[in-house]
Design goal:
single chain, 6-stranded antiparallel β-barrel, mainly beta
Length: 299
């Protein structure tokens, strides 16, 4: 996984790097080699690759920074201004730690806060969760927090609109941007293809998005929205990458095809598609796993 980061470690890694340390959450500490993590942290403060001509640059408006990960305020096309807003991140970014394989978290109280960013990555203020509406690392790697603020309240107070979740499956070759609120950095590349199954340690994810090599995401980018450059809509949530070339181990996911053939792609990163989440979001931002078309794992 593009692992969550713990503040104490970051404070050590970022001495002299010109970046402020994060506040530690209660998520598991990263296992990345300290020397490699330092290099990644220093790389993260560099400017991201430039966007292709005639494509409007994807900004940070609507993204958030967690204590250890990235995320975004999201909505569906049917969301109402008076609905409680939702923040999307990864299941492995939950403050309670990694959900076990097969575990699904629903309607768990939470008071977690998120730093809301404007289009240029300026910090506008914080928004607060009322609960973890949904979280899992089974089939996908996603968490959805319901906030104490409505979409209308966030827009009125901060001038920020939520990012819209696309209802369409992204196509191979789609130009995308991974937007990290934690690092205040973007990564631009294309959809290289899809992994029928992506296996990492105890967890298996379905139909994962594989990025081209340009998206060199690192720890702390977990939970970043993956935005379709052409539509501005969210098509995936960033979650993992193969760091060391190992096969199917933690931080080294492997692809498994329908015949069971395993492929390892060292240095390649992945996200989990989000179009399948849309049918599960009902009126009032309620996550309803019984709704028609909803295929998210149930408890």
């Amino acid at each position: 996984m593009n692992k969550p980061l713990v503040g104490a470690l970051l404070a050590t890694l970022l001495v002299g790097a010109g970046a402020a340390p994060a506040t530690a959450g209660s998520a598991p500490a990263p296992t990345r080699d300290p020397a490699a993590a330092k290099t990644a942290a220093q790389t993260a403060v560099k400017a991201g690759p430039s966007k292709a001509a005639k494509v409007k640059a994807v900004g940070f408006a609507g993204t958030v920074a967690l204590s250890n990960c990235s995320g975004s305020v999201v909505r569906t096309a049917d969301s109402k201004p008076e609905d409680p807003a939702l923040v999307m991140s990864n299941g492995h970014c939950l403050e309670s730690g990694f959900p076990a394989a097969g575990e699904v978290v629903v309607d768990k109280p939470s008071t977690r806060t998120f730093t809301l960013l404007d289009n240029t990555a300026g910090e506008l203020g914080t928004v607060k969760a009322s609960k973890i509406a949904y979280g899992t690392m089974t089939d996908t790697d996603v968490s959805l927090y319901q906030l104490t603020s409505t979409y209308a309240q966030i827009e009125s107070q901060y001038g920020i609109k939520a990012l819209e979740l696309s209802t369409a499956r992204p196509a191979q070759g789609t130009a995308i941007t991974v937007v990290s609120g934690y690092w205040k950095k973007t990564y631009s590349c294309k959809v290289d293809g899809f992994a029928y199954r992506l296996k990492e340690g105890d967890w298996t994810w379905k139909d994962s998005v594989r990025y081209t090599a340009d998206c060199k995401t690192i720890g702390g980018t977990s939970g970043s929205p993956v935005v379709d450059d052409a539509t501005g809509k969210v098509v995936a949530v960033n979650n993992t990458g193969n760091e060391d070339g190992q096969e199917c181990t933690q931080n080294n996911p492997c692809e498994v095809d329908e015949a069971g053939q395993v492929t390892v792609r060292k240095g390649i990163n992945y996200g989990q598609q989000t179009y399948g989440i849309v049918p599960c979001i009902g009126a009032g931002s309620k996550i309803d796993l019984t709704r028609a078309g909803c295929e998210l794992p149930k408890p």
